[in-house]
What does this fold into?
Amino acid sequence: MTFARCRKYHVKGADAGVMLNRMVTRDVSKLPLNRVAYVVWCTDEGRMVDDGTIFHLAENEYMLTCGSSCNEWLRMSSLGFENVEIVDSRTRLRHLSLQGPTSCAVLKKMGLVGIETSKAVRHSTLPVRRRYRDGVPHRVYGRPRV
It folds into this structure.
């Protein structure tokens, strides 16, 4: 299954975590490095805008994924934060979801050594997101070849 339409935004800079904490309902400051969490963002009145996942890639660097375009919402959310850079990475990064009883074996053949023992919701430098083992959804992120 492809998630080519899934939006991916890199948010980085000294104010990235603070800005994301203002935007989403989860405390991003508690998200350890190399972990991912489900998040929801709402208006100040509590109306849900969208949901997605946030990957904590490095110190002051995150990747936000969601189902719809949030360029304008991210721009508005970053107002007042001096040191935040937001990059739409949709065309530079692809998202693939593998499901079924052989999905772990397919990922191993793709070169993801140790995938069978990886802990849930971790990622590597390729960013890999894996929810469960043995046939339950696996997600792989990688840069497309042109």
Residues 19 and 78 are 6 Å apart (CA to CA). The longest strand covers residues 48-58.
